[in-house]
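pls ignore typos typing on phone
1,3-dihydroxyacetonephosphate + seq
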Amino acid sequence: MLVSTKEMMAKAVEGHYAVGQFNINNLEWTKAILLTAEELKSPVILGVSEGAGKYMCGYKTVVGMVNGMLEELNITVPVALHLDHGSFEGAKACINAGFSSIMFDGSHYPIEENIAKTTALVNTCDVLGISLEAEVGSIGGECADPDECKMIADLGVTMLAAGIGNIHGKYPENWAGLSFETLAAVKEKVGDMPLVLHGGTGIPADMIKKAISLGVAKINVNTECQLAFAAATREYVEAGKDLQGKGFDPRKLLAPGFEAIKATVKEKMELFGSVGKA
Ligand code: 13P
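k done
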């Protein structure tokens, strides 16, 4: 059964580790992440962007696929199904479809509007036992205002994404790194509120560890699994393996990419410290 992130976040804050959010794109992605979490006895959050949700034929299809896998793969570790960077409308659609966790990204609105829309969702999510992530200071390399973070945290959200110089996708060569000053200032204002680090792809291990020590309890990874899947698939095709025997069978063609996602997720769960925490 899907769970909200409330308990896994509380335990992560208490135990000084982070739970990974791994974004899903299709059946292979979902199966690879769930099996790795189960093997490592780690809690896990499956992230679904609005675009990926559409690609996978809509939120109801996603909920059906994930619930089916939880049962048929005998997954016993805590799993949350989470909308990533949701709009207000997307959040409502995912709540109705059966997601157990929602991110409402109001960071592009003026702070008053972000507060008003987040407040409306806090109430709905509370009633339904769904966890809610809010965002302040967009994930485009900017740093959030710690006072605005406190305003949003005080609304009663489950976890807070604050921009600390992180970005989605690959980091450029001249990236200045995470702003630990901002992170510490946000933490100072919001206390034990679990903080979320977006853009987990390519952040060096020492920065990840420092971020966790400063209150980050959830780390999002998307691009790194995509790169691993693409590289493994490329290698298979370039070696001409799809032309040997029944190597063109999708169950064979997609297997190296599937294994590459598993390896990436394992590496991240070990780095985040969530192994054995289920
Ligand atoms: P990356 O694609 O950079 O790993 O970021 C993922 C993310 O933050 C999803 O919200």
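The two ends are 14 Å apart (CA to CA). The longest helix spans residues 111-128. more later
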